[in-house]
Every structure is written in C-alpha cells, then in structure tokens.
C-alpha cells in the first residue's frame, strides 16, 4: 500500500474517532475502568408519569446508540493500533494483503473479502 494512501486512511480514522468521542460525550460518561467504554446518562425530564416513561424510552434509545458507537470506536482503535504496529492491511485469517479498495471503503476491515465471505456464510 502506498504511504500516501495509508496516511489518508489514518487521517480519516482519527477524524472519525474524534467525531464519535464527541458524540458519546454528549449523552454518556466515560468509564475510567474499561477502555473505550461509556455509560449512558439517565435523562431527567421530571416526576410525572409520562415524563418518567419518556426518560426510560430516551435512556433505552441512548443505550443502543452508545453500543453501536462504542463498537465502531473499538474497531477504529484496533485499526489505528495495526497501523502503528505495521500490520495494517493484512487479513487476520489468511495473512494475505487486504485490497486497497476495500480498506478505502471500510478502513476498519481486518479481513479480506474472501475470508469475510466465508465467515458470514457460516
């Protein structure tokens, strides 16, 4: 892979990481005990029954968004770690080089298309 392409991917990953961390900070608190883990804040709309129902619904929605963002953040951090270690772009399963087109389309990929197809068809 060209060094310029790798730098472009790294820059995009860093920007996306910052966006996710900012979004998570808007409705969660960072868990200092577990890396890349956050805890949704329970919203406080009031004491009336309908307000309590809205709080629970909002909290439930936040939990699913939090889970998705945390997973994406973990994937980004793993990709950045692979870049730093010099192993970025190699398939975790067969060891072959992942195509540059795949990495540009999905920079957190850790599997080549062939291995990913095998994994998802099982």
Task: Write up what this structure looks like.
There is one protein chain. Helix content is 61%, strand content 5%. With 122 residues, the chain is mostly helical. It has two domains: 86 residues; 34 residues, no CATH class. Strand 1 and strand 2 form a beta hairpin. The chain is elongated, with a radius of gyration of 19 Å.
Number of helices: 4
Q: What's the β-strand tally?
A: 2
Radius of gyration from the alpha-carbon trace, in angstroms? 19 Å
* Mean pLDDT over the full residue set: 85
Gross geometry: elongated
Please state how the strands of the largest beta sheet are arranged side by side: 1-2
Ends: how far apart? 30 Å
The major beta sheet can be summarized as: 2 strands, antiparallel
Instruction: Tell me the count of domains.
Output: 2
- Fraction in helix: 55-70%
Structural class: mainly alpha
Question: How much of the polypeptide forms β-strand, as a percent range?
Answer: under 5%
Q: Could you give the order of the helices and strands?
A: HEEHHH
Poorly predicted spans: none
Features:
2 domains, 2 strands, 61% helix, 122 residues, mainly alpha, elongated
Helix and strand topology:
Layout: H1 3-25, E1 28-30, E2 38-40, H2 49-85, H3 100-105, H4 113-121
Antiparallel strand pairs: 1-2
